[in-house]
Design goal:
2 domains; 6-stranded parallel β-sheet; Rossmann fold; about 220 residues; alpha/beta
Length: about 220
């Protein structure tokens, strides 16, 4: 425990080629007693080198970088440091980008023009193996796509509710409490969703559901 009485300090790196944005974000991180800014990189190669040197717990990564994209950097970083939590800042990722992110171990998508409080909360609660996609990004992506592709799997109303909570990054315990069902029943719905979507993990299921436009704006119980 630190001298400030903070039990868990998080080391955070910023990867963005926009110097002003990166400096403002770094300054904001420096004002948080439980967050330690360990450096800034402006591209993929710099990000990989920074993470090998500074070993951050969390990386805030812009998607658009001059020598590649944020997923390129994330994949290289996670190869050598799989426990690193990486949050991608972007505007409106395509379903293909979401699917690639789900398989890469990314922890979340946030809009680059979103609030600082949301970013700080996501940094503090980011978990490896759980991808959080900000609702506004899902909404933008749905509006940008055409009609639902033919042959989409038929999900029940309850499966859609569970799927929506999965997409928000909640765990089985939270989902079961939210829906008023047992954890055993909730796990059964998750298994059914994975089978119908041909997915091997919840992250892959969410990415597939996004591609097929199965994540509606809201559902009734």
């Amino acid at each position: 425990m630190s001298s400030l009485g903070i039990e868990h300090e998080l080391r955070v790196a910023v990867v963005d080629d926009h110097t002003t944005f990166a400096e403002l974000l770094s300054d904001a991180l420096g004002r948080e007693p439980d967050l330690i800014n360990v450096g800034h990189a402006a591209g993929v190669d710099e990000a990989v080198a920074l993470c090998r040197r500074a070993r951050p717990d969390v990386v805030i990564m812009d998607y658009h970088l001059p020598d590649g994209d944020g997923l390129d950097a994330a994949e290289q970083i996670l190869t050598t440091a799989p426990d690193t939590r990486i949050i991608l800042l972007t505007g409106n990722p395509s379903p293909d980008v979401l699917a690639r992110a789900a398989g890469s171990g990314l922890c979340g998508f946030l809009p680059k023009d979103g609030s600082l409080s949301t970013l700080l909360e996501t940094i503090r609660h980011a978990k490896s193996g759980s991808m959080v996609v900000y609702p506004a990004i899902l909404s933008q992506n749905r509006r940008a796509q055409a009609a639902k592709p033919p042959g989409s799997p038929a999900l029940t109303q309850r499966e859609r509710q569970v799927l929506a909570l999965m997409a928000a990054g909640y765990d089985v315990r939270t989902n079961s409490r939210t829906l008023g069902i047992s954890q055993h029943t909730c796990r059964g719905y998750v298994k059914s969703i994975l089978a119908k979507l041909g997915a091997h993990s919840q992250l892959e299921a969410v990415a597939t559901a996004q591609r097929l436009e199965l994540l509606g704006a809201g559902h009734e119980r």
